[in-house]
Design goal:
Blueprint lengths: L5 H18 L12 H8 L10 H12 L21 H13 L6 H22 L13 H19 L9 E5 L4 H9 L3 E5 L7 H9 L3 H6 E7 L11 H11 L2 E5 L24 E2 L1
Parallel strand pairs: 1-2, 1-3, 3-4, 4-5
Helix pairs in contact: 1-3, 6-7, 8-10
Length: 282
């Protein structure tokens, strides 16, 4: 593992050549998915007592596996959420991987943590959240929503310790991302959906809250609004919803995992007015 030999050097050159060719390819090959059975017959057994070696593994990836996948930077990569990374981002993925830094503690990863914090500081500044607001990077929107919902639940329970064993209630729209409902199960909370796939307005939210039973009202602790639905890019009435949440004293979470990148575009920034009222943003 810690030795350098000719095989490693050759593999390194092959990988670098592949990476350079790939990021400079303006017309990437449009792969086509194959079944597991087809791939098994093409690849064969790869996890063996003696291993297949780096060169063979790379050869299988380059000649078989990647051709059974659709690249996200292809013009025909349609109707999927992931965005195409910039070439600079791709190269820095290589740089950070090769650098091999553990970024959990400042003692061992201070420089890299500083860089990450600078990026986060800029992202937070786009939202207009108050001084002192900050965040963390997660593996994706689902984990980010889970983190926010846990924070909301714990803030609610800290206000009233008698709620420690109470199953909470979250209100969101039917157009919200499926992770909201899935993560509510993880934190043992119920989700009440407002029946709209369109823009969730403050009047709709206020009306739904007014219909809660006393028991439901006692469990109600958060509202999740969406800033860019994955199906249609719809942005809820963030300003109005934020004000309703403040009136009722509940946590206001904005799921901007899909549409939040538009905060950096002056041409559409006004559509996110009210996001600065949020208690949490993903």
């Amino acid at each position: 593992m810690h030795e350098i030999d000719i095989d490693l050097i050759e593999m390194t050159l092959d990988v670098m050549k592949y990476a350079i060719n790939r990021i400079t390819d303006m017309d990437p090959h449009l792969g086509k998915p194959k079944s597991e059975r087809e791939l098994r017959s093409l690849v064969g057994e790869t996890v063996t007592p003696s291993g297949i070696g780096g060169e063979r593994a790379f050869e299988l990836f380059r000649d078989v596996l990647v051709k059974a996948s659709v690249p996200i930077d292809h013009p025909r990569h349609l109707a999927f959420v992931p965005a195409s990374p910039t070439r600079e981002a791709i190269m820095f993925d290589l740089v950070t991987s090769a650098t091999s830094v553990h970024g959990a503690f400042w003692m061992e990863g201070g420089g890299c943590i500083f860089a990450e914090n600078e990026a986060m500081r800029w992202l937070v500044s786009l939202t207009g959240l108050p001084e002192g607001a900050f965040g963390v990077f997660t593996s994706g929107g689902t984990e980010a929503n889970l983190s926010a919902m846990v924070a909301a639940r714990e803030a609610w329970r800290e206000k009233d310790p008698s709620k420690r064993s109470t199953r909470g209630l979250i209100i969101t729209s039917a157009g919200a991302h499926s992770s909201v409902r899935a993560m509510a199960k993880v934190i043992d909370a119920d989700v009440m959906l407002i029946d709209t796939e369109g823009r969730l307005g403050s009047e709709m939210l206020a009306e739904r809250i007014s219909l809660l039973t006393p028991e439901e009202r006692s469990r109600f602790f958060a509202v999740v609004a969406t800033a860019g639905t994955t199906n249609a890019g719809i942005i809820d009435d963030l300003e109005g919803i934020g004000k309703v949440c403040r009136d009722f004293g509940v946590w206001f979470h904005v799921d901007a995992a899909y549409g939040g990148g538009a905060l950096a575009a002056p041409s559409v920034r006004h559509l996110f007015t009210g996001i600065e009222l949020a208690d949490s943003v993903t």
